[in-house]
Amino acid sequence: MSDDLERLLGPMTQLVVVIFLAFFFFELLVELVLNELNIGYVQRRRSGQMIPDSFHGKIDSQQMERSVSYTLAIDRFQRWATLYGALATLLVLFGGALPVAEQLSAQLGSLFPPSLHANGILFCLGTGFVVSVLNLPTELYSTFVIEQRFGFNRTPFGLYLADKLKGLVLAILIGGPFLFCILWVMRGTGTSWWIWAFFFIFGFQLLMLVLYPALIAPLFNRFYPLEPGELREQISSLARQVGLKTSGIYTMDGSKRSAHSNAYFTGMGKSKRIVLFDTLLKQLNTEQLLAVLAHEIGHYKLKHIRRSLVLRGAFLLTALFVLSLLVDYPPFFHAFGLQEPTHHSALVLFTFLAGPFTFYLNPLFNHLSRRYEYEADAFAAEISNNAQALGEALIELTVQNLSNLTPHPWYSAYHYSHPTTEERIRAMAAMGKKLAQT
């Protein structure tokens, strides 16, 4: 490298570092400030015994106290988890971890033919493994201390380790071929690689939506067809009413890991299935379950899933275009200790940098998601003609899951993809009044 080029790259490299750190610490500041605002907001309502209107008579003082204690325990831990996560990220990016990983992957990759892109695959998978290990302390504390203290964790440590081992095997079996294809596309399709990479990644995501319910999810949970009876008949009737074809209605043994409950749709095309947590079946009655499922069906019938896929596709295409501008820009790599631009290191760096440079979009995505939730609520209330059952189900699930009844509005806007239960019930009440007047 010539002296003139070295002098030029020096300031540019420093500029990349400064820009990254500015965004990184701004995101960190926003996270910490919002967390502290939420803690103070919840504490003030705790001292004032401020229970939202919809929960009067639905939650007693002991349940309210447990809900507040659970929220504060999570937020106080999140204070330190956020700082730890930031420190771990800086350690990886500026502590020499990436150059060491590059050197080791190059040595191991030299044992394979160059056409296999083994160096790049090992670098990406190895970096991902290091990040997973660094995340273990906060994950273990959250699961085996906080969730355990409040009676939610039911995961034996042996099962936790088995899940991690399965995840590692899947990362190798699926991630390896996936990375090979991406690196082949980046190297073999010229300057337009980002367009071809988009089609491959987006197609891969669609394929996983089809394969996940049948092949991957059963590796972690058992799924049983819902037993014949009144509930199954009414769910089938509801699906027929809205013209929804599924591959079946299943219950999932979510209780073996957590006392939290949920219901969801998964899959695409003929692989679509309705999944109910076994914990949900114990917490809600038939009318409430039907209302929750009607809400989930609403997302499908109102094309929220398709719209979300299109939005994610547009976001992915934009991200790949930006990466195409950086992949041959040496200061981008020198800033984090890497000597030469490579496709695989560009992928890893972009993964680390994407968060700090896009975090401010969270409220926008959450706003759209919340609008979808309101629309699905309205759909459920209309087809079931029973808005009260949905409201009761939301309240019951909120109480049982010890959800935060009174989040700070800014914290909620930034972090919550769903409106609060109080907001959803108010919206349904307003809709009911509007329908009554027509």
Characteristic terms for this protein:
4 strands, mainly alpha, 4-stranded mixed β-sheet, about 450 residues, 16 helices, about 5% strand
Write the layout of secondary structure elements.
Elements: H1 3-47, H2 61-94, H3 97-109, H4 118-149, H5 157-188, H6 193-216, E1 223-225, H7 230-241, E2 249-252, E3 263-266, E4 273-277, H8 278-283, H9 286-301, H10 304-326, H11 330-334, H12 343-358, H13 362-384, H14 387-400, H15 409-415, H16 421-437
Parallel strand pairs: 2-4
Antiparallel strand pairs: 1-2, 3-4
Helix pairs in contact: 1-2, 1-12, 1-15, 2-4, 3-4, 4-5, 4-12, 5-6, 6-10, 7-9, 9-13, 9-14, 13-14, 13-16, 14-16
Could you describe the 3D structure shown?
A hairpin with a 6-residue loop joins strand 3 and strand 4. The chain starts with a helix and ends with a helix. It has a 4-stranded mixed sheet. Helix content is 73%, strand content 4%. It has 16 helices and 4 strands.
